[in-house]
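Issue 218. Parser rejects a valid record. Input:
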Amino acid sequence: MNSEQESKAPIYLGEFRDERLEQEFYQAEIVAHFNWIRLGILAAALFFLVLLLPVYDRIVDHHDFRIAASMIVVVTVALFFLFFKVSFATVGTLLSYWFTGYEIAVGLALLYLLTNLMPVAPLVQVLSLIVMILVVFLINSRWLLAVFTTLLLGVSYFVMVVVENGLSADAWVAGLGVLLIIVISSLASYRSNTYKRFHYLNLLELIRLAEFDALTGIYNKAKFNKDYDGLTERARRQQGHLSVVMFDIDNFKEINTQHGHLVGDAILLELANFIQLHIRSSDIFVRWGGDKFILTFPDIPLPLAAEIAEKLRVLIGDHDFAQVGHLSCSFGVAAFEEGDQLDSLVRRADQRLDTAKTQGKNRVVQG
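Output the parser choked on:
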């Protein structure tokens, strides 16, 4: 891959170049592994709490014991705080910095405890550090932050050992061994992070193909079918309104015949973009098929929906479409009634649309 291709790649250094997309991915990862993350934090807090027992048993010096006990209590309380923060706070990329800060603080505390306050065998120290390195790369964090954290822990351990025992061959061997583990873990984590993000892109593309119309980019019929029950349930629960407007382009077959299907597709796209400029973000705009569209207005009664349809009809008639100039649309408006299924509601809107056609087109019919 040359430098130009790399600059266009959506993923760089294990992260999406698009910060918004990275945040969406990170939030999806946290939600997917939410229970495991909480369990891991709780396990770490309990582990530090249990450490009080060997600390009490092995540290004879009262000053060192107070330092070790205070350190363990502070880390345990901080971990419980993180547990509740993850449980109740809004997930965002800022959480990755919280994780990184905690990883560094917990790691340094444990290393200081094992190398200075309660020294254990060098092999146990190195194995403990390796476990910490692996845990850091397993936690849902950004790859660069994970590399930074593990390098900081590795360098800190090397400094602690040198300060405590002097610069020896064993210290160099341990340091190089830890560095090798960090390099291998970093490469494996990089590939895993890159793969997960490409998988996420593929998933988004599958969702787009399943829920959005390929030509116009608005929702398709399948998406509307999927969301219909939620819309009607909301209308029932809140005793609100739900109106549906079905419309199509008058004489669209003649346009296709005269100008060709490519021009017809361009008109559909231009019309869809034009409609989106004049509706609310909460309104649901669907391509039903061919040149037929559906607008769904939550919380809007039938008369107001008919007024909106009339405004759109006038706006469309005044708009100058590329290659064909002015055109018109006919509208059928229906409102949700208790007991309505999707088919019955759409059928009523379609019947009103047919009435608009038989009455001369370019008009709105409600009922």
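Fixed in the parser; the record now loads. The beta strands are 11-12, 15-16, 219-220, 242-249, 284-289, 292-298, 329-335, 364-366.
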